[in-house]
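User: My collaborator sent over this chain with a note saying "see what the structure looks like." That's all I know about it. Can you take a look?
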Amino acid sequence: MPWSKSIMDDKLTCLSYWYPRLETAGLPVPRTTILHAPDLISLLDGETPAGWHDFLQQVKDACLKHELPCFLRTGYGSGKHYWDKTCFVADVEKVDSHIYELVEWSEIADFAGLPHDIFAIRTLIPTRPVFKAFHGFPVTREFRVFIRDEVIEHTQPYWPPAAIEDHNPDKENWRELLYWISKLADHEKQELHWFAIRACRAVGGGYWSVDLLEDKDGDWWITDLAIGKRSFKWDSQLVQ
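Assistant: Without extra context I'll predict from the sequence alone. Here is the result:
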Protein backbone atom coordinates (compact mmCIF):
# COMPACT_ATOMS: atom_id res chain seq x y z
CA MET A 1 0.00 0.00 0.00
CA PRO A 2 1.30 3.54 -0.76
CA TRP A 3 0.81 4.67 2.84
CA SER A 4 2.83 1.83 4.36
CA LYS A 5 5.55 2.39 1.73
CA SER A 6 5.66 6.07 2.69
CA ILE A 7 6.10 5.21 6.35
CA MET A 8 8.92 2.83 5.50
CA ASP A 9 10.63 5.52 3.41
CA ASP A 10 10.39 7.90 6.37
CA LYS A 11 12.05 5.37 8.66
CA LEU A 12 14.87 4.79 6.20
CA THR A 13 15.41 8.53 5.75
CA CYS A 14 15.82 9.08 9.49
CA LEU A 15 19.42 9.61 10.59
CA SER A 16 18.95 6.97 13.29
CA TYR A 17 18.66 4.37 10.49
CA TRP A 18 21.47 5.28 8.11
CA TYR A 19 24.07 6.93 10.34
CA PRO A 20 25.01 3.84 12.43
CA ARG A 21 25.33 1.78 9.25
CA LEU A 22 27.64 4.30 7.61
CA GLU A 23 29.71 4.63 10.77
CA THR A 24 30.05 0.84 11.07
CA ALA A 25 31.15 0.69 7.42
CA GLY A 26 34.00 3.09 8.21
CA LEU A 27 32.71 5.89 6.01
CA PRO A 28 33.62 9.53 6.75
CA VAL A 29 30.70 10.83 8.82
CA PRO A 30 30.68 13.55 11.50
CA ARG A 31 30.82 12.24 15.07
CA THR A 32 27.17 12.11 16.16
CA THR A 33 25.13 11.54 19.30
CA ILE A 34 21.57 10.32 18.70
CA LEU A 35 18.87 11.06 21.28
CA HIS A 36 15.23 10.00 21.51
CA ALA A 37 13.02 12.98 22.27
CA PRO A 38 9.72 13.07 24.16
CA ASP A 39 6.65 14.47 22.44
CA LEU A 40 7.69 18.11 22.00
CA ILE A 41 4.73 19.51 20.08
CA SER A 42 3.33 21.31 23.14
CA LEU A 43 6.41 23.56 23.10
CA LEU A 44 4.72 25.43 20.27
CA ASP A 45 1.81 26.22 22.58
CA GLY A 46 4.11 27.59 25.25
CA GLU A 47 3.75 24.50 27.44
CA THR A 48 6.38 22.27 29.04
CA PRO A 49 6.25 18.73 27.62
CA ALA A 50 6.58 15.72 29.89
CA GLY A 51 10.24 14.74 30.09
CA TRP A 52 11.38 18.13 28.75
CA HIS A 53 13.93 18.99 31.44
CA ASP A 54 15.68 15.62 31.26
CA PHE A 55 15.80 15.77 27.46
CA LEU A 56 17.09 19.34 27.45
CA GLN A 57 19.88 18.38 29.83
CA GLN A 58 20.81 15.43 27.60
CA VAL A 59 21.08 17.75 24.60
CA LYS A 60 23.17 20.26 26.55
CA ASP A 61 25.53 17.55 27.77
CA ALA A 62 25.92 16.20 24.23
CA CYS A 63 26.62 19.69 22.85
CA LEU A 64 29.41 20.17 25.39
CA LYS A 65 30.80 16.71 24.64
CA HIS A 66 31.02 17.60 20.94
CA GLU A 67 32.41 21.05 21.81
CA LEU A 68 30.86 24.34 20.77
CA PRO A 69 29.93 25.39 18.24
CA CYS A 70 28.21 22.16 17.24
CA PHE A 71 25.48 21.08 14.84
CA LEU A 72 21.97 20.18 16.01
CA ARG A 73 19.30 18.53 13.88
CA THR A 74 16.38 16.15 14.03
CA GLY A 75 16.48 12.72 12.45
CA TYR A 76 14.95 14.24 9.31
CA GLY A 77 16.55 17.63 8.84
CA SER A 78 18.36 20.64 10.22
CA GLY A 79 16.46 23.70 9.02
CA LYS A 80 19.85 25.04 7.90
CA HIS A 81 18.31 27.93 5.97
CA TYR A 82 17.67 29.35 9.46
CA TRP A 83 21.22 28.50 10.49
CA ASP A 84 21.80 30.61 13.61
CA LYS A 85 18.33 29.87 14.96
CA THR A 86 18.16 26.13 14.29
CA CYS A 87 21.20 23.93 13.68
CA PHE A 88 24.21 26.10 14.58
CA VAL A 89 24.61 26.00 18.36
CA ALA A 90 27.23 28.35 19.79
CA ASP A 91 25.78 28.87 23.29
CA VAL A 92 24.67 25.87 25.33
CA GLU A 93 22.33 28.06 27.37
CA LYS A 94 20.32 28.79 24.23
CA VAL A 95 19.81 25.15 23.25
CA ASP A 96 16.17 25.29 24.29
CA SER A 97 15.42 27.95 21.66
CA HIS A 98 17.19 25.89 18.97
CA ILE A 99 15.08 22.85 19.85
CA TYR A 100 11.93 24.98 19.72
CA GLU A 101 12.90 26.35 16.28
CA LEU A 102 13.64 22.84 14.96
CA VAL A 103 10.28 21.55 16.19
CA GLU A 104 8.50 24.49 14.56
CA TRP A 105 10.49 24.05 11.34
CA SER A 106 9.66 20.33 11.31
CA GLU A 107 5.95 21.02 11.63
CA ILE A 108 5.90 23.30 8.56
CA ALA A 109 8.76 21.79 6.48
CA ASP A 110 6.53 19.37 4.59
CA PHE A 111 2.83 19.31 3.71
CA ALA A 112 2.30 16.74 6.45
CA GLY A 113 5.14 17.90 8.71
CA LEU A 114 8.30 15.99 9.60
CA PRO A 115 8.83 13.84 12.70
CA HIS A 116 10.93 15.29 15.52
CA ASP A 117 11.17 12.28 17.81
CA ILE A 118 14.89 11.87 17.08
CA PHE A 119 17.52 14.55 17.66
CA ALA A 120 21.20 14.40 16.73
CA ILE A 121 24.11 16.44 18.01
CA ARG A 122 27.06 16.45 15.62
CA THR A 123 30.63 17.69 15.69
CA LEU A 124 30.78 20.68 13.35
CA ILE A 125 32.90 20.10 10.24
CA PRO A 126 35.40 22.95 9.72
CA THR A 127 34.97 24.27 6.17
CA ARG A 128 36.16 27.03 3.83
CA PRO A 129 33.00 29.04 3.12
CA VAL A 130 33.16 31.47 0.22
CA PHE A 131 30.19 33.57 1.35
CA LYS A 132 27.23 33.46 3.69
CA ALA A 133 23.50 33.60 2.98
CA PHE A 134 20.14 33.07 4.71
CA HIS A 135 20.71 33.49 8.47
CA GLY A 136 24.51 33.42 8.31
CA PHE A 137 24.71 30.00 6.65
CA PRO A 138 28.25 29.39 5.31
CA VAL A 139 28.09 28.32 1.67
CA THR A 140 30.93 25.96 0.83
CA ARG A 141 31.67 23.04 -1.52
CA GLU A 142 28.85 20.55 -1.23
CA PHE A 143 27.45 18.01 -3.67
CA ARG A 144 24.60 15.52 -3.94
CA VAL A 145 24.92 12.14 -5.65
CA PHE A 146 21.86 10.11 -6.68
CA ILE A 147 22.50 6.40 -6.68
CA ARG A 148 20.28 3.39 -7.32
CA ASP A 149 21.52 -0.02 -6.15
CA GLU A 150 25.16 1.09 -6.38
CA VAL A 151 24.73 2.63 -9.85
CA ILE A 152 25.35 6.40 -10.04
CA GLU A 153 22.46 8.18 -11.78
CA HIS A 154 23.12 11.89 -11.24
CA THR A 155 25.60 14.23 -9.56
CA GLN A 156 24.90 17.88 -8.80
CA PRO A 157 26.23 20.82 -6.77
CA TYR A 158 24.11 21.13 -3.66
CA TRP A 159 23.24 24.82 -4.19
CA PRO A 160 21.56 26.04 -7.40
CA PRO A 161 21.92 29.83 -7.82
CA ALA A 162 18.14 30.28 -7.65
CA ALA A 163 18.19 28.96 -4.08
CA ILE A 164 20.61 31.71 -3.03
CA GLU A 165 19.72 34.87 -4.92
CA ASP A 166 16.82 36.06 -2.76
CA HIS A 167 18.40 35.08 0.55
CA ASN A 168 20.90 37.80 1.41
CA PRO A 169 24.25 36.56 0.08
CA ASP A 170 26.86 38.73 1.78
CA LYS A 171 29.18 39.17 -1.23
CA GLU A 172 28.36 40.92 -4.49
CA ASN A 173 30.27 38.36 -6.56
CA TRP A 174 28.53 35.39 -4.94
CA ARG A 175 27.45 33.97 -8.31
CA GLU A 176 31.05 33.74 -9.51
CA LEU A 177 32.15 32.22 -6.20
CA LEU A 178 29.32 29.69 -6.31
CA TYR A 179 30.23 28.77 -9.89
CA TRP A 180 33.81 27.90 -9.01
CA ILE A 181 33.02 25.85 -5.92
CA SER A 182 30.35 23.96 -7.90
CA LYS A 183 32.86 22.36 -10.28
CA LEU A 184 34.36 18.93 -9.70
CA ALA A 185 37.64 17.61 -11.05
CA ASP A 186 37.46 14.08 -12.44
CA HIS A 187 39.35 12.61 -9.49
CA GLU A 188 37.00 14.36 -7.06
CA LYS A 189 33.97 13.01 -8.88
CA GLN A 190 35.41 9.50 -8.72
CA GLU A 191 36.00 9.88 -4.96
CA LEU A 192 32.46 11.13 -4.31
CA HIS A 193 30.99 8.35 -6.41
CA TRP A 194 32.98 5.75 -4.51
CA PHE A 195 31.73 7.10 -1.19
CA ALA A 196 28.16 7.07 -2.52
CA ILE A 197 28.50 3.46 -3.69
CA ARG A 198 29.83 2.39 -0.31
CA ALA A 199 27.05 4.31 1.47
CA CYS A 200 24.38 2.68 -0.70
CA ARG A 201 25.91 -0.71 0.02
CA ALA A 202 25.99 0.01 3.77
CA VAL A 203 22.23 0.73 3.89
CA GLY A 204 21.29 -2.31 1.84
CA GLY A 205 20.83 -0.81 -1.62
CA GLY A 206 17.85 1.05 -3.04
CA TYR A 207 17.49 4.55 -4.47
CA TRP A 208 19.23 7.24 -2.40
CA SER A 209 20.62 10.72 -2.47
CA VAL A 210 23.96 11.11 -0.73
CA ASP A 211 25.14 14.58 0.37
CA LEU A 212 28.88 15.19 0.68
CA LEU A 213 30.69 18.21 2.13
CA GLU A 214 34.33 19.25 1.68
CA ASP A 215 36.20 20.31 4.82
CA LYS A 216 38.93 22.95 5.12
CA ASP A 217 41.62 20.35 4.37
CA GLY A 218 39.99 19.11 1.17
CA ASP A 219 38.60 15.90 2.67
CA TRP A 220 35.02 14.78 2.01
CA TRP A 221 32.34 13.90 4.57
CA ILE A 222 28.97 12.24 4.10
CA THR A 223 26.53 14.53 5.89
CA ASP A 224 23.11 13.23 4.88
CA LEU A 225 21.19 10.45 3.14
CA ALA A 226 17.62 10.46 1.92
CA ILE A 227 15.32 8.37 -0.24
CA GLY A 228 16.15 9.47 -3.79
CA LYS A 229 12.61 10.06 -5.01
CA ARG A 230 12.06 12.56 -2.17
CA SER A 231 15.27 14.51 -2.74
CA PHE A 232 15.62 17.74 -4.68
CA LYS A 233 17.25 17.23 -8.07
CA TRP A 234 18.30 19.91 -10.53
CA ASP A 235 20.03 19.88 -13.91
CA SER A 236 23.46 21.44 -13.46
CA GLN A 237 25.81 21.81 -16.43
CA LEU A 238 28.82 21.88 -14.10
CA VAL A 239 28.69 18.22 -13.12
CA GLN A 240 27.66 15.56 -15.62
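A starting point for your reply to your collaborator: The beta strands are 32-36, 70-74, 88-89, 118-123, 131-133, 137-139, 142-148, 151-157, 207-214, 220-227.
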